[in-house]
Amino acid sequence: MRFRGKNYHLQPKKYKRVLFLFLACAIVLINKAKALPFQDANSSDRVTGKVTDLEDGSPLAGVSVVNVRSKKGTVTNVTGNFSLQANAGDSIRFSFAGKQPKTVYWDGQGALVIQLARSEGTLGEVVITGFQNIDRKKFAGAAVSLKTDEIKLSGVPDVSRMLEGRVAGVSIQNVSSTFGSAPKIRIRGATSINGDNKPLWVIDGVVLEDIVNISNDQLSSGDPTTLLGSAVAGINSNDIESFDILKDAAATALYGARAMNGVVVITTKKGKSGKPVVTYTGNFSSQLKPSYLDYNILNSAQQMSILGELERKGFVNSDILSRANYGPFGQMYDALNADPNSGNFSLQNTPEAKKAFLLRYANANTDWFDLLFRNSLTQEHSISISAGTDKSQSFFSTSFYNDNGWTIADRVKRYTLNFRNNYTFNDKLSVGFLTTGSVRQQRAPGTLNRISNPVSGQFDRDFDINPFSYALNTSRALTAYDENGNLEYFRRNFAPFNILTELKNNFIDLTIVDLKLQGELTYRFTKHLKYEFIGALRYVKSSREHQITENSNMANAYRANGNSTINQNNKFLYKDPDHPDDPAVVVLPYGGFYNRAEDQLINFDVRNGLSYTNTLGDKHDISILAGQQIKYADRQSFNNTGYGYQYDNGGTPFVDYRILKQTIEANFPYYQMTKFYDRFAAFYLNAQYTFDKKYNLFGTVRYDGSNSLGSSPRARWLPTWSFGGAWNMEREKFLENVAFLDYLKLRGSYGITASLGPATNSAVVLRSATTNRTYPDERESVIQLINLENDDLTWEKNYQGNVGIDIGLFKGRVNASIDGYLRRSFDLISRIKTSGIGGEPYKVANYADLKSSGFEFLLGGEPYRQKNFSWKTTLTFGYNQTEITNAANVPLIFDLVKAEGGNKLGYPVNGLFSIKFQGLEHNSGEPLFTNEKGEVSKAVNMQDDNVDNLVYEGPVDPTITGGFSNTFTYKNLSLNVFVTYQAGNKIRMYPAFRSAYVDLDAMPKEFLDRWEMPGDETKTNVPVIDDNLYAPRLVGAGAYPYNNYNYSNVRVADGSFVRLKTVSLAYQLGNSALQKLFVFKTASVTAAITNFWLIYADKKLKGQDPEFFNSGGVAQPIQKQITLSIKLGL
Amino acid sequence: MKMNTGDMIKRFSLRINSGIIIFVLFTSCGKYLSKDPDNRAAVNTPEKVEQLLGTAYPQANYIAFTEGSTDNVGDLGAGDVGAADLNTVNADVFFFRDTKSINEDTPEFYWFACYHAIAATNEALETISKADNPDSYKAQKGEALVARAYAHFMLVNLFSKFYDPATASSDPGIPYVTEPEKNFVKQYTRGTVAGVYDQVEKDLLEGLPLLDDNLYKVPKYHFTKAAANAFAARFYLYKKDYDKVIQYATAAVPVSNFKSTLRPWNTTYSVLGVNDIPPLYAKATETANLLLTETRSYWFRIYALGRYNLTPQKMSDLLRDAPVADGSWAFPIVFYVEGHNLVPKIYEYFVRVSVNADIGDGYNMVPLFTVEEVLFNLAEAYTYKGQTNEAIALLNTYLSTRITQYDASLNTITASKINSYYGTSNIQEGLINVILDYRRSEFMHEGLRWFDILRYKLTVTHETADHQTLTLADGDLRRVFQIPPTAKQSGIEQNPR
Fold this sequence. Notes:
The complex is a heterodimer of chains A (1130) and B (497).
Chain A: H1 4-10, H2 12-22, E1 45-53, E2 64-67, E3 73-75, E4 81-86, E5 91-95, E6 102-105, E7 112-116, E8 126-128, E9 133-135, E10 143-147, H3 148-151, E11 170-173, E12 184-187, E13 200-203, E14 206-207, E15 240-246, H4 249-252, E16 263-268, E17 274-287, H5 300-312, H6 328-336, H7 351-362, H8 368-372, E18 378-388, E19 392-403, E20 411-424, E21 429-445, E22 451-453, E23 458-460, H9 467-473, E24 490-492, E25 495-497, H10 499-505, E26 506-524, E27 529-548, H11 553-557, H12 564-569, E28 592-616, E29 620-645, H13 657-665, E30 671-691, E31 695-706, E32 717-728, H14 733-736, E33 741-755, E34 765-770, E35 781-787, E36 796-809, E37 814-833, E38 842-865, E39 869-886, H15 893-897, E40 911-914, E41 917-920, E42 927-930, E43 936-937, E44 951-955, E45 960-970, E46 973-983, E47 986-988, H16 1031-1036, H17 1041-1046, E48 1052-1054, E49 1057-1068, H18 1071-1077, E50 1082-1097, E51 1121-1129
Parallel strand pairs in A: 1-7, 13-16
Antiparallel strand pairs in A: 1-4, 2-3, 2-5, 5-6, 8-9, 10-15, 11-12, 13-14, 15-16, 17-18, 17-51, 18-19, 19-20, 20-21, 21-26, 22-23, 24-25, 26-27, 27-28, 28-29, 29-30, 30-31, 31-32, 32-33, 33-36, 34-35, 36-37, 37-38, 38-39, 39-45, 40-44, 41-42, 42-43, 45-46, 46-49, 47-48, 49-50, 50-51
Chain B: H1 5-32, H2 46-52, H3 63-68, E1 74-75, H4 84-94, H5 107-130, H6 138-159, H7 193-207, H8 225-238, H9 242-252, H10 258-261, H11 268-271, H12 277-281, E2 289-296, H13 299-305, E3 308-309, H14 312-319, E4 321-322, E5 327-328, E6 334-335, E7 341-342, E8 348-352, E9 360-370, H15 371-384, H16 388-399, H17 408-411, H18 415-422, H19 427-442, H20 449-455, E10 460-463, E11 469-472
Antiparallel strand pairs in B: 1-3, 2-9, 4-5, 6-7, 8-9, 10-11
Helix pairs in contact in B: 2-5, 5-6, 6-7, 8-9, 8-15, 9-15, 15-16, 15-19, 16-19, 18-19
């Protein structure tokens, strides 16, 4: 320190190099060296005092207190108090990670009261890994810490969505934005092919277990289970203090064998000593109705003109009355028939009368969005009370979230409770208790699980009434009300259908109760040695009641038996196999369905750790942590189908024995219950060493055991390790005088992490099944060999190397982090075809490898800072690419062309492939493709495994993601503008084409450009609307050209987009104004708009959201939202 | 911080205590972590072994590729099974090509299913060998051994050169698996056909006496004593050990019982609606069925709709008049699609992926051993043993259930009628001819003709609609079905082509 000036003169060139490296502009450096006052060393006394946090007044424990003269030091205890030998006139220096150091002059007065402010412009703060709080300066891993205040999206109840664009290398895709469904989250891209790729969530040191595991593909399926997908949906975002996103092997090391996909650590708020502080936060949001202006749908007149073509082509004639579904034309032919009671015709069979009848529909231009959606009102009220003394602190919070529904079919209520107490008994012992609970009640449109149909190459979902996909897929020529204002019914599944009626009579009620009790204990044996215990018990129960009343179309479809054609074609009627020549019969004469699914989780997690920290001599900081962890999670899932429940009739079920007979003959279980047992134990050791506050070394070993691979002891245990180093260059002598340099840190890490793959056969897997035999009385319950024992089964593993640099300049005006990484995943689970001689033709084994690499940077700071005005900015950028380097799976065409993408050797994880479009056939206007054999054909066998003729489009997951946030503050007013972006991926457009259309379907505007006569194929790629005589012939020959067209390269768009995620304006009421007017100490008002503008997206998408998978069911796209948020402090 | 000795000791003992705690936890972890991750089955009682053996029968169908390779089929000129893959299977077999398809009704699918069944038997046998009370598993052991023998026996007959005493000890067989596979990729050897036959014989003879019909919940889907004896009769017939054929065939079905147990084509079946026959054909209550199994198969669609099927010519040759007997067969001829004639037998049980789904898997219930086959095997053995009268008597019993409006005075066959019909003076030769002819008609659409072609080295000719002729003569390498290419991983050579 004392030789700073000299140093400067000795090494001028280095400065220049540094200058050129980082700024390339001349800066005059001023030597600010200041001599400390010289002190007499003779007299001796003790200085005592207390150190608190400037922001909230809480005591700060572990603050380093050093007598500058004598170089003796101590640390504050848990109450923030210290005592140190000193002489009057000594300077005492206080330093603490994340705080600005402070040096005070002690003139011998009484106890010092020291308040430390948050450090700006230093590489401040700590990284919370859930096991340790590590001084960021010493930290060698790649991790990002975020304060909730900085990233909070007002009015967004699910905290996982707040991370979008905030962290370089973390990709968040809102594949559905229904409450409770999870976004697709990837930290540094995919690490596994068939296993999970989602990060581990950790809350206050305890891993948050999923209630049900939602697989990669399921996430975007729209199935009702996806409502349980988000692990953090039950958390009140106001309770969260900070997020720490751990990205590399060194950062996640203490999670060992579960860390492969990265870790998100959430730390909740604690009580603070001082007077009780009451905070109220209220959010009032409205989600805006979607509009047809944003979508590419024909209006009713255009639609009717195409229906006219359908009529000419024979799709629409009086036969329509025998079909499962019909719209206006069906209505017309129905009216042309004589009323059986009166014998009157309600419609004359004259061209004029028919025209007049249809004209009403042509002019209807029904706005389904208007009928099914509303500008919702979402309220969120949250109250928290923080209070405490030196010895005990408590934090209590409760919240109520109420969403009355963006659509008429959904609504959510959520209640949360969070109660946390910390007690300090003495210098040694402190304990904490945490109780959190949440209750969610949600209603969603009734839906069944979708079924993959590789035969035709599509996903089937019976009775889908998702309002969003209904509005997009239903012709605007249909009307919800007839001329007299009564509900108008068209036909679906042979039964009358009106979406408004159906949504009232077919819905899912979801209830989740989530309770967690957590206890923590810390015992300090000495200043250096500490024992820590953390234990948590969590119980979650969810039930989904799918209620289908007797008035619903779904129940009525079971009763549609109007004529012999319907009798033959209605698949919901029952044909008795004992009497094959008899007509089908109705087996649900009364009532509807009451289907129930329940998921339950009991989770127990205990950890014991011993940590030792010491500074040896002046320059050797040592910290060692050793511990043990044990966990279990028991899951149970149950579902049953209740037949014939009479909702309007006192709730008595009427069960026709034949519906059960049908179910049993179809070998379909009408109830199921499954249990899963997760047992886990681990031992860990972590050591950190810092020399001279400059050179940091970091190493971790962990030994995990799990039962998830099967009961065999061989596969059970797995060691993982990592090490890393960091170099705080700004402390080097040659940089000490660079005044503009706040910090400069180089770091590197390497290690192995792991994850459990989707295979459980370290011992043989046998499961009972019922044989598929024609006659129920010949069936047996048998035990089936599912998987042979695999002696070689092990965890999926990943080597990761990371190098990074952190730099801060000009006292916080500029800071940047750059990271580059390489990852090699190996022993990934892949499905592979075997000789079959052992009895298992396809085995899942650790047989795939994956490499990925990427880099990411964060550039931020506060470039402009004046008394009244400041500008803060953050730009994040992440690039990641993956390649499957070894896999023996045999994908089918359907596996690769589906919207979620598929996995093929030599391509990225979830690569999207297309069937190659070969133009339209000259004579018919039907599309042609390169089929599986390489020939030009209308028919492509989607179940073929020859995928060489497919076109590779690109990955489904974006390779580039990031965000750009700017906050401008003027006095008490602050404006935040936040933009997110992604690029590098391809998306499959909505499947709009079919071989046969009915007069219910809405068509996109592409249809106006369709092929209509030979020669058009040179001008358009949009195929002809097929002839009714021809279409069935194609299907009979196993050809589905229109479906192939949906999966062709014509129907792929670029996934890049730039979205104005949010703009918010906040006003903080000034102190003086508040004191005069209110009892409040603090008050602020924020207005925000969210998702308002998709600044850039591929034009081909024409309104299709590039993030959203329109899979029906319970899926909803992200919504435009306006929020008003009020925060009051008492 | 100052410390007294008491503190020191406390600290020390605390450290030791936590050390002990960690150690104890570590050792008790073994038990804690051996919990199964889900509610999977554990096979640990005779009842559960019995349930496991419910899957010890190949759940795949050999009929599509064996029947399609025989001289029972021709080219109808048109036909569509409704799925490209099934059409391919149907055509490939007709043209004697190795099919690329790996789905239902292909040799590869059958290969996998047989070994899957074998794996179940080996899993059962391993459980039994480790059990504390192996005696209470006797019947299960018997079933496992016989089932293991059966699956291997079918494999060796299809994927190796057909058993010929002269070359069997050098012809490559198929891997005979006798223990559960525990490694991801395990190496096997093919051995020889003779070696496989020896092991089949050993398992069969060891298992047969242990069987206990009373244990089965649905006996017709398991190796009952009768079914196992029928299997033994077939085995020794293929091995040409006729004394043993007689021994096991008569054990399977006592001669006096044939009349009452044969399929009642000219009585009960002839008064049923044609739609009612298929559901009945493979029903457990049908006395003629000795062993049934459920197979993942679309054979029903193939023979009902496929292009390469029973032609009108073959229909009139094979299904109209019964040779020698001066009567006409009682087999009804029906069609689902005009021009695709068939005898209603195998039927499809379609299992949808969910109750109301349009898609699902097809299952065919297939009789693997029948009273008819036992009768023919016995008749053939009697013939070779010179007991021609017994053979003729059996065939007359058979005809009494097969000839429309059977009249014993008209339809009874005799040695002289046989000889004159076939133009021979050797009644043994005549009998073999008549047995082969009757078998061919009887087992129409059931694939067994293929094994007669192999046994008697018959030449198969297929004629296409445009009059190309394809010939598959004895010694043609294509008479042995191809082993899946992935078997190379396990060190198994494919068959020469």
